[in-house]
């Protein structure tokens, strides 16, 4: 998995964009966008963009997005940490590749 900093400029999303991080993973790209409300509060927009091949040979993208607000940051991190630790315990081989080590490093920064 290759991770790059990529600024995004989507005209259809709300909130002023403060910071953006793109994680490319095969046909998927994950975006972690920090945005600000009109009041200056930050929230996180997490987007999965997936490339689809159409029958006519063309391609398109499907996009799924969720918003995480400041009052939920702590609970979200706790739940994600618990879940990742469960996976590490039961499927440690998922974290043994060079690609996955960058995931561990990024996750540990949280």
Write a structural description.
- With 110 residues, this protein is an alpha+beta fold.
- The chain has a single domain (2-109), classed as Nuclear Transport Factor 2, Chain: A (Roll).
- It is 27% helix and 41% strand.
- It is built from 2 helices and 5 strands; from the N terminus they run E-E-E-E-E-H-H.
- The chain has helices at residues 73-90, 98-109, and strands at residues 2-4, 16-25, 28-36, 42-53, 59-69.
- The protein has a 5-stranded antiparallel beta sheet, with no helix packed on it.
- Strand 2 (16-25) and strand 3 form a beta hairpin.
- It is flat, with a radius of gyration of 16 Å.
- The two termini are 19 Å apart.
- The model is unreliable at 1-12 (pLDDT under 50).
Please supply descriptive tags for the structure shown above.
110 residues, alpha+beta, Nuclear Transport Factor 2, Chain: A, five-stranded antiparallel sheet, 2 helices, 5 strands, flat, disordered N terminus
Topology (SSEs and partners):
Layout: E1 2-4, E2 16-25, E3 28-36, E4 42-53, E5 59-69, H1 73-90, H2 98-109
Antiparallel strand pairs: 1-2, 2-3, 3-4, 4-5
């Amino acid at each position: 998995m290759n991770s790059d900093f990529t600024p995004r400029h989507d005209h259809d999303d709300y909130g002023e964009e403060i910071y953006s991080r793109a994680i490319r993973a095969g046909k998927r790209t994950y975006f972690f966008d920090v945005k600000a409300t009109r009041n200056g509060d930050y929230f996180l927009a997490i987007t999965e963009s997936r490339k689809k091949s159409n029958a006519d040979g063309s391609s398109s993208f499907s996009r799924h997005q969720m918003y995480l607000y400041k009052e939920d940051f702590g609970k979200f991190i706790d739940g994600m940490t618990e879940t990742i630790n469960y996976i590490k315990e039961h499927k440690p081989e998922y974290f043994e590749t060079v690609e996955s080590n960058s995931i561990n490093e990024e996750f540990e920064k949280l």
